[in-house]
Amino acid sequence: MMNTDEEAIKSLSDSATTFFLNCIDLSSPDIQHSVSLLKQACLDSGFFYVINHGISEEFMDEAFSQSKRFFDLPIKEKMKLLRNKKHRGYTPVLDQHLDPINQVHGDYKEGYYIGVEVPDDDSDTEKPFFGPNVWPSTNILPGWRQTMEKYHREVLEVAKAIARLIALALDLEGNFFDQQEILGKPIAMLRLLHYEGLISDPTRGLYGAGAHSDFGLITLLATDDVAGLQICKHKDAKPQIWEHVAPLKGAFIVNLGDMLERWSNSMFRSTLHRVLGNGQRYSIAFFVEPNHDCLVECLPTCQSVENPPKYPPIKYETYLLQRYKETHADLNSYK
């Protein structure tokens, strides 16, 4: 017999449909077909799969294995690596609170942030999201840093390839997002995630990750085979309709962030999504953020006299600092 929590999650799961995403093959020589599929996905849901991206399944499996090794450490060891003011390091369960209106507590997940490695003597370390990473001791996790640095490098290259297709879908030059002030030196954050197995119950405000949209340009998500991700294509609908996104082995689930919605004048969507916990689950998110100094404003190809810009220009650092402040616990609370 199911308990109340299990009945709640089953009821919610049964009432939500599974949404089948467009699948973008990065190895396809038919660029126009890929751009067409991608544009359709960006207009419809803001989510799509990316396959044949050049990162082997064996290496992705290794990254997941190393991630699990970290999360298996005792909490005392993990807290020694607590995230710093540069947002590098460990984030405990409930550290992030993505949907305070509907969540009783924060997110029932733990994580680990890894960014672009910027040495202490680099002048860029004065910027809020640049600096050296926090790494576990090699005595505790040998080879861990090397795996994560390689994963960060390789996924960033995949992200840039996707950004080129997005540029073409917006009638821009393919290298538009490669500019120095955008992805020439981006704030690219890798985040390891572990959902500890709490059964989510929306009727009680309990979620693996509360409903939210991502902050930046795009997010590349790799998941294990445990379902949990849901999207809401029409966030203003009453009631909201949530659809499951199925895991796809070896693929990235890619979604658009708030900055791309602003750049495209809301033509492309930064879609509301959440995670419902229903057992142990691991995922690896890669948040592709523009440079600190990037000024995000409506693209010329996305505006007209009849369709003027909907958002004022904004410096990306300003936006990102505000979103992190709104959604993460104050570091002083851990003292």
SSE topology sketch:
Layout: H1 4-15, E1 17-19, E2 23-25, H2 31-44, E3 47-51, H3 57-71, H4 75-79, E4 89-91, E5 109-114, H5 144-169, H6 180-184, E6 187-196, E7 209-212, E8 218-223, E9 229-232, E10 243-245, E11 252-256, H7 258-263, E12 272-275, E13 280-289, E14 295-296, E15 314-315, H8 316-327
Parallel strand pairs: 1-10, 2-3
Antiparallel strand pairs: 3-11, 4-5, 5-6, 6-13, 7-12, 8-11, 8-13, 9-10, 9-12, 14-15
Helix pairs in contact: 2-5, 3-5
Overview of the structural elements:
- This protein is of the alpha+beta class.
- It has a single domain, classed as Jelly Rolls.
- The protein has eight helices and 15 strands.
- The strands form three sheets. Strands 2-3-11-8-13-6-5-4 form an eight-stranded mixed sheet.
- β2, α2 (31-44) and β3 form a beta-alpha-beta unit.
- α2 (31-44) packs across α5 (144-169) and α3 packs across α5 (144-169).
- The longest helix has 26 residues, at 144-169.
- It is globular and about 60 Å long.
- The protein starts with a helix and ends in an 8-residue tail after the last helix.
Features:
single chain; 335 residues; alpha+beta; Jelly Rolls; eight-stranded mixed sheet; five-stranded mixed sheet; 8 helices; disordered N terminus
Roughly how much helix do the residues carry, as a percent range? 25-40%
Count of individual domains? 1
* CATH topology descriptor: Jelly Rolls
Q: Are there runs of 5+ residues with pLDDT below 50, and where?
A: 1-15
Whole-number mean pLDDT: 92
What's the number of extended β-strand segments? 15
Largest sheet: 8 strands, mixed
Pfam family, one: 2OG-FeII_Oxy
Protein name: Fe2OG dioxygenase domain-containing protein
Organism: Ilex paraguariensis
Keywords: Iron, Metal-binding, Oxidoreductase
